[in-house]
């Protein structure tokens, strides 16, 4: 049950970690999307995306019955500068009315009485006689007082008209006209758009917005409702136009106006009634009367873009902001980057075309910001996970690093480059351990296997006479010694220096020398002790140091001829203690000295022992005690020396015998 529970917990942890990262990045994307959506109060990104969509969306010429009777440069050249006499305006309206249009919209302000009552009467009579003329209502801000005012036509003209309608478009903060308000007014939105009034009189079926309920909560402020984005049919000059001078001079057939929706307005340059639109941002501005014509066409063909309900906007923003999390956890960084770029391009094009395909518009700011932020945020989380994993691995290496630290002040936070260096050192150490493992397997498969195989072969032969028993004992003893040496080496490698107790070196050396007394007697070698008369205490592992010393003395005895001697000397200074083993043998061959203390090192009659573990064990034990070991050839023979430093704070107590 315990193992099953452990496996289940491991699986749950491995599953939760990426899920937690996805949840965290998802929450951050939702927050960025919401903050960007709320923060884009001027809708600048929305406007840029809408303009981009208008440019890439095909705009085939619609079959429209809207036409403009334009007061252009030719008309001004023939009939004089603007403003014209109202009697000339009356004549123009009468001439247009003779063509029997559906409705006539006049984009000329008649908000003042003027100085010619007869001309006013003529204009009133022409409007009343036609019976289908719509006059404009202006809503503007006073330059002197900053007060918003409604400016309808003078009363006699307003009474004679078929209807009144407000002209004007909404200028965005960047100065571009993209939208209209269907209803506006001071204190209450009582004035419909002029285009809506004209289409109603022309009896053209439209999906119009009903007049909102009257409200006087802001009696001196402009109240606007039902904002709609315009879908311009093309750049300036796309709406069919007929010059006013041609109509007045009867030089053009009036049949072009029959059963058409006619707009009368100025298009001549220099008259000031021009605005920039998405269709003209890169070219000439569009005349105000042509903007009204585009409003008529959009409303007539039900192409006004209305805002998407806020619930749908929030749902779309949230869902599309989280879509990148479907591939970012599964893709490699480069693939994820390419996918994120493609996703942003798809979103940009889709949100740009969305109003023209569906008839609804919304702010894509949050979606686009989330799409741009998804890859950096996920990359940050990926690097953060890698950093935490790196820190965990460094913590695992910390005990090994602390083994080489002498003071706590040496432990400092690592920067990124230093962490990489630690990992590289760990990788090098891992490769070294792998090489040692291969050597160990070779050692086990050869040195240990051979004596055991020989012993097994002798047992299988069935001949256990005295000679075979002697050989069998030798093989088994050799295998036992090899295994014991390997176990001793493993114990030395696993030793922890921070747990070493205090030991007395004289006693350790005496015990090691006594252990080899019989071997020395058999080899006719004299063991000479040159030890101090006082005790020397250090921190160390008694058994490991004893075994290392035994290995050195055993090697010295083995290579010392009969009648020779092995001298063991112990000395101390203020910074270190050292003991030497000097024999009177032939010394160590020069080609063997550099690799004498290597693991499984082999040479001809080498001093490392037959297994290649003896002197490597000595080196391992000494290094665990922060010491050094080396061998040299002297005139008398080989000399092996072990030196252990006295660490700061280590106590050495000299006690007299």
3D architecture notes:
The chain starts with a helix and ends in a 12-residue tail after the last strand. The chain is built from 18 helices and 22 strands. With 657 residues, the protein is an alpha/beta fold. Strand 7 (177-186) and strand 8 (191-192) form a beta hairpin. The longest helix is centred in the C-terminal third of the chain and has 46 residues, at 416-461. The model is unreliable at 402-411 and 602-606 (pLDDT under 50).
Structure described in brief:
With 657 residues, this protein is an alpha/beta fold.
Helix content: 40-55%
- Helix-strand makeup class: alpha/beta
Proportion of β residues?
15-25%
What's the β-strand tally? 22
Task: Give average pLDDT, whole number.
Answer: 81
Q: Number of helical segments? A: 18
**What Rg do the Cα atoms give?**
51 Å
Shape: rod-shaped
* End-to-end Cα distance: 62 Å
Number of domains: 4
The largest sheet is: 7 strands, mixed
Stretches where pLDDT is under 50 for at least 5 consecutive residues are 402-411, 602-606
Oligomer: single chain
Write the topology of this structure:
Blueprint: H1 2-39, H2 44-56, E1 66-71, H3 73-79, H4 86-98, E2 103-106, H5 117-130, E3 133-141, E4 148-151, H6 155-160, E5 163-166, E6 170-171, E7 177-186, E8 191-192, H7 194-201, E9 222-229, E10 241-243, H8 244-248, E11 261-266, E12 274-275, E13 286-287, H9 288-300, E14 306-307, H10 310-322, H11 333-358, E15 360-361, H12 365-402, H13 416-461, H14 466-493, E16 502-504, H15 505-515, H16 517-522, E17 526-530, E18 537-539, H17 542-558, E19 565-572, E20 576-582, H18 614-624, E21 628-633, E22 638-645
Parallel strand pairs: 1-10, 1-11, 2-3, 2-11, 3-5, 14-15, 17-19
Antiparallel strand pairs: 3-4, 6-7, 7-8, 7-9, 12-13, 16-18, 19-20, 20-22, 21-22
């Amino acid at each position: 049950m315990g193992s099953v529970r452990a496996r289940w917990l491991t699986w749950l942890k491995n599953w939760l970690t990426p899920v937690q990262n996805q949840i965290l990045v998802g929450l951050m994307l939702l927050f960025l999307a919401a903050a960007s959506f709320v923060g884009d109060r001027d809708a600048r990104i929305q406007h840029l995306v809408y303009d981009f969509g208008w440019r890439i969306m095909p705009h085939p010429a619609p079959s429209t019955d809207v036409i403009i009777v334009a007061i252009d440069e030719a008309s001004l050249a023939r009939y004089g500068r603007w403003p014209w006499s109202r009697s000339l305006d009356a004549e123009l309206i009468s001439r247009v009315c003779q063509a029997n249009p559906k409705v006539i919209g006049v984009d000329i302000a008649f908000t003042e009485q003027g100085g010619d009552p007869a001309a006013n009467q003529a204009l009133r009579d022409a409007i009343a006689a036609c019976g289908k003329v719509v006059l404009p209502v202006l809503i503007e801000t006073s330059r002197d007082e900053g007060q918003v005012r409604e400016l309808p036509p003078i009363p006699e003209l307003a009474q004679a008209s078929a209807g009144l309608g407000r002209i004007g478009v909404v200028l965005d903060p960047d100065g571009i006209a993209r939208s209209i308000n269907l209803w506006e007014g001071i204190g209450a939105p009582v004035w419909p758009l002029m285009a809506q009034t004209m289409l109603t009189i022309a009896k053209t079926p439209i999906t119009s917005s009903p007049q909102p309920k009257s409200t006087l909560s802001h009696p001196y402020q402009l109240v606007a409702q039902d904002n709609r984005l315009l879908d311009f049919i093309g750049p300036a000059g796309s709406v069919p136009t007929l010059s006013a001078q041609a109509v007045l001079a009867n030089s053009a057939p009036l049949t072009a106006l029959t059963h058409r929706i006619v707009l009368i307005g100025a298009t001549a340059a220099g008259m000031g009634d021009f605005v920039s639109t998405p269709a003209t941002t890169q070219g000439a501005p569009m005349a105000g009367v042509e903007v009204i014509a585009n409003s008529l066409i959009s409303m007539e063909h039900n192409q006004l873009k209305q805002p998407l309900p806020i619930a749908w906007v929030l749902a779309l923003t949230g869902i599309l902001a989280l879509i990148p999390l479907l591939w970012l956890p599964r893709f490699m960084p480069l693939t994820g980057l390419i996918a994120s770029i493609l996703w942003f391009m798809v979103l940009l094009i889709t949100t740009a075309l969305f109003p023209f395909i569906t008839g609804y518009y919304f702010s894509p700011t949050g979606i686009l910001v989330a799409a741009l932020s998804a890859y950096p945020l996920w990359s940050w989380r990926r690097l953060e996970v890698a950093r935490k994993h790196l820190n965990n691995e460094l913590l695992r290496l910390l005990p090994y690093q602390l083994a080489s630290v002498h003071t706590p002040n040496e432990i400092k936070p690592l920067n990124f480059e230093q962490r990489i260096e630690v990992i590289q050192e760990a990788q090098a150490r891992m490769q070294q351990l792998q090489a040692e493992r291969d050597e160990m397997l070779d050692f086990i498969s050869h040195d240990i296997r051979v004596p055991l195989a020989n012993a097994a072969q002798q047992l299988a032969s069935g001949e256990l006479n005295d000679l075979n028993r002697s050989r069998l004992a030798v093989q088994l003893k050799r295998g036992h010694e090899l295994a014991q040496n390997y176990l001793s080496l493993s114990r030395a490698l696993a030793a922890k220096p921070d747990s070493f107790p205090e030991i007395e070196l004289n006693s350790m050396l005496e015990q090691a020398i006594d252990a080899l007394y019989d071997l020395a007697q058999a080899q006719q070698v004299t063991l000479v002790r040159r030890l101090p008369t006082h005790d020397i205490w250090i921190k160390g592992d008694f058994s490991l140091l004893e075994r290392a010393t035994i290995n050195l003395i055993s090697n010295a005895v083995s290579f010392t001829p009969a009648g020779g001697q092995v001298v063991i000397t112990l000395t101390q200074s203020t910074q270190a203690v050292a003991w030497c083993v000097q024999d009177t043998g032939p010394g160590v061959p020069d080609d063997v000295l550099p690799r004498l203390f290597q693991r499984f090192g082999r040479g001809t009659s080498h001093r490392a022992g037959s297994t290649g573990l003896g002197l490597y064990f000595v080196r391992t034990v000494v290094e665990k005690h922060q010491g050094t070991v080396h061998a040299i050839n002297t005139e008398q023979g080989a000399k092996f020396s072990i030196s252990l430093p006295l660490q700061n704070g280590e106590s050495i107590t000299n006690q007299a015998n």
